[in-house]
Design a protein that fits this description.
15% of the residues lie in helices and 32% in strands. By secondary structure, the chain is α+β, with helices and mostly antiparallel strands. It has a 9-stranded antiparallel beta sheet. It has a 7-stranded antiparallel beta sheet with strand order 2-3-14-5-10-11-12. Keywords: Apoplast, Cell wall, Cell wall biogenesis/degradation, Disulfide bond, Glycoprotein, Glycosidase, Hydrolase, Secreted, Signal, Transferase.
Length: 341
């Protein structure tokens, strides 16, 4: 029997209202307007991160598959650095037994700023058949790896069945993470964040790797190479932003205009309708948030917007109050996480 987590709102609804609630959230997620973006081929946008080993490209160069086997994982990196931008890909997760496997789509400049790097993460945390897939988002600024800003969520679909679009918007004003054009998280820049708000040019990465020590059930479920190779498919590649040299002390003045243009794009603003979708997603699918982890942060970080409807769902550990299990332990809400940044 598959367990389902219910939010306090859902538990208060009679069966007919609950069905209506589920219909609204499903319909809202399916009807989001597609963004107006230009997709690129692999050759136009990315290069192998280490080597061509375990990387497969389609004949039209519009799809790239990253493989993990017992010899190695694999990864790709954008051919350029960007000073703010919108980065997106349609991704299909590996199928069958994928415990211990992390597929990541993220931005970083750790190779240039080793001690004070910035990073924006979307990480998929592997899965055991019959369980709900889980993923997390995270933000680091200026090397603040001790102040990770992770949130964790369940998925409302099986990401190994079909491709779904995952996107990161990063501009001087806000950061938005998207799943299929639905905003699932927004961080609005707050002056009190100072260097914790990512602000240095970053590359865009996609990787697959063995994270048996932590990714699934706190490391209890590990990669089983009987099911190799594990294949993550990336297509519909989007890289929109100002291309820069990361070591320039004074960034190109063209980026001022580029950033201004970026902030008026449809994907740079959460509309009232999209905000409703984001709220519904977070009420139903978020199971850890650093903003509600008062053990870790007795005073919430300055960018946190504390919503009563969310706060009542979480314990002081940042994990859900509900004891229903849905594909992994949630005793602490963070117990399976070790920051990859």
């Amino acid at each position: 029997m598959k367990h389902v987590m219910h939010s306090p709102l859902e538990r208060s609804l009679p069966p007919l209202s609950l069905l209506l609630f589920l219909w609204i959230i499903t319909t809202t997620f399916r009807t989001a307007k597609a963004f107006n973006v230009t997709t690129l081929t692999f050759g136009e946008s990315y290069s192998p991160l280490f080597s061509n080993f375990n990387i497969q490209r389609s004949p039209d160069d519009k799809t790239v598959s990253l493989l993990l086997n017992r010899f190695s994982g694999s990864g790709i990196i954008s051919s350029d650095y960007y000073n703010y931008g919108f980065f997106s890909a349609s991704i299909k997760m590996p199928s069958k037994y994928t415990a211990g496997i992390v597929v990541a789509f993220y931005t970083s400049n750790v190779d240039t700023f080793e001690r004070n790097h910035d990073e924006l993460d979307i990480e998929f945390l592997g899965n055991v058949p019959g369980k709900a897939w889980r993923f997390q988002t995270n933000i680091y600024g200026n090397g603040s790896v001790s102040r990770g800003r992770e949130e964790r969520y369940r998925m409302w679909f099986d990401p190994s069945k079909d491709s779904h679009r995952y996107s990161i918007l990063w501009n001087p004003r806000n950061i938005i993470f998207y799943v299929d054009e639905i905003p699932i998280r927004e961080v609005v820049r707050n002056a009190a964040m100072r260097g914790d708000y990512p602000s240095k040019p970053m590359s865009v990465y996609a990787t697959i790797w063995d994270a048996s020590s932590w990714a699934t059930s706190g490391g209890k479920k590990k990669v089983n190479y009987r099911y190799q190779p594990f294949i993550a498919e990336f297509k519909d590649l989007v890289l929109e932003g100002c291309i820069v040299d990361p070591v320039d002390q004074i960034l190109s003045s063209n980026c001022t205009d580029s950033a201004a243009a970026l902030m008026v794009k449809d994907y740079s603003t959460v509309t009232p309708e999209s905000r409703k979708s984001m709220r519904l997603f977070r009420q139903r699918y978020m199971y850890y948030s650093y903003c509600y982890d008062t053990r870790r942060y007795p005073v919430p970080p300055p960018e946190c917007v504390i919503l009563p409807s969310e706060r009542e769902m979480f314990r002081s550990s940042g994990g859900l109050k509900s004891k229903i299990r849905f594909g992994g332990s949630q005793r602490d809400g963070r117990e399976e996480h070790q920051a990859s940044g």
